Predict the 3D structure of the following.
Amino acid sequence: MSTTTSAVRSHAEAVQVSRMVDYLGLFILFFVLTGSYHIHGMLTMGDWDFWADWKDRRLWVTVYPIVMITFPAAVQAVIWERLRLPWGATVCILGILFGEWVNRYFNFWMWTYFPINFVFPTAAVHMAIFLDVVLMLSGSYLFTAVIGGLGWGLLLYPGNWPVVGPLHVPVEYNGMLMSIADIQGYHYVRTGTPEYIRMVEKGTLRTFGKDVAPVSAFFSGFMSILIYFMWHFVGRWFGNVRFVKRT
Amino acid sequence: MKARTDRVGRWSLVGALIALVAAVAYGPAALAHGEKSQAAFLRMRTIHWFDLSWSTDQLNVNDEMEIKGKFHVFEGWPEAVDPPEVSFLNIGIPGPTFIRKESYIGDKFVPRSARLEIGKTYTFRVVLKARRPGEWHVHPMINVEGGGPIIGPGKWVTVNGSMRDFKNPVTTLTGQTVDLETYNEGNIWFWHVLWYAIGVAWIAYFARNPIFIPRLLMVNAGRADELITPTDKKVGLLFGAATILLVIFGYSSTQSKYPVTIPLQAGVLRGITPIELPKPTVDVKVDEATYRVPGRAMKMKLTVTNRGDRPVQLCEFETASVRFMNPEVCEDETGYPEDLLAEEGLSVTGGAVAPGETKTLEVVASDAAWEVYRLSDIIYDPDSRFGGLFFFYDDAGNRQMVIVDAPLIPTFM
């Protein structure tokens, strides 16, 4: 067999090889995204995702969607454009969640003994499915950026509230009002993470009273729209085939 | 040529094996906190810890221990470190081997950062509850924003028992008592597994059909639109609607189950009250201070004036948590960590200073701790000064604390 002759001899064999390529490709894509998106996530929103006492109604709500819409936008640009597949955002989020859970379970719990209820990652599958469904139904990147990006930002807080809400129940602790998450942060000593490093709301959106989360979510959604555009073009550049064509 | 290639291959294999053995055969546990690697000036000229006590060094899981003492915020605070306006009383332990139940500066509970004043002295108290069995190095610590961690003396504490027995109950303002070790864990797993399964189902729906090659060929042939069928769109609509409905359901059911919630609490605590130490009646002027590198000894010539009505003697020199004791005057009875205690490390020539007398004392503070704790590195700092506390005792056992902050000259002969 030479390099110019086909490796398959029948249609059935071609289908079999094609499926093998599918499974291998999906496996590689998943783990490449697990690694690269995870690094990106940890470098940009790390502590907000690590600790329950960082998951506040202002900065977590703002930062997570803005920095995390990047890879979904880029991967959507590649696999929708080249393959018409509408799960670019979902595969990114499943990848990072897989990596995060491995990290939280083996490193944070089994190695350093932080309880899981203090170090669980942010749930984002609902945001990713929303982004993918909007792209599939509209077929428009502009529509996906504007509606999908906005929804991506708006959905973080309500989607995570079932997990985070119980940790915001108030406690009177040694004469001070603290949430359960605050007490977790106080009890489970992080020698290298003093309290002042924690970047959470400190009453600076006072004009909006207690409605801080919706304001933050809208701002986050708006910024996510812009970031979606930027990373869409990163994805297009990354997914171009000029080099292959030239060779 | 082949022989040469074989030789290279063989030696490469040997090299790889040596690297592997070196990497895995020696793996000491990191049990302490790198306190020795902190710059000497940071430990000598920021926070001075004294009168420390650890209630025990042996306890079982769920037992509590207390660390208490005083710290002085040094007047000669270095320029390279931000002032301690946002400071956090922390504890240096290897992860949550203990939980921090309580911590106080003065009588104020400080779960958050607080403002400290340079030149003031504070009392502190930390209550820890043993969680994980093992032998742990436990330090008090002050973290300063813009300055980093300033670690105090560490003591080895042994915890016995099993972590499985550890309980951490907390009662909420809604009257529910929960164990923080496991609270909400089932809920976290449930929602994460549910969402993950939905995400996998979304991809699996499209992965039933070919994913890469046939789709790429179709798109390249200009038939991309055929790849998303009306059924696909209906399924997409279903997933989208189910996602939104599930989010709404999850949010509203949580709201009804936990109607009373509060935002995370934050903000710097003010109004931390320092203690007032009696003004010393002993004045100390450092005429000369040299550090003799080969002898691991600091030599000081002090002019001491006693304005009190009783004779005083120099008992102790403390710097960077190392205590140099003059055994002719006093000894430690607090069980201070041995590696930080130079029991016979202070020799004083000149004896007692009588009331009204001004006298020159020649003081030598020598111990291997200078080297072990890397304090001798002070001579390589860009601002070669040392700081510390002198403790004088009178004949009635009254103690006076005098702060010292002076230039340091190294000698190499």
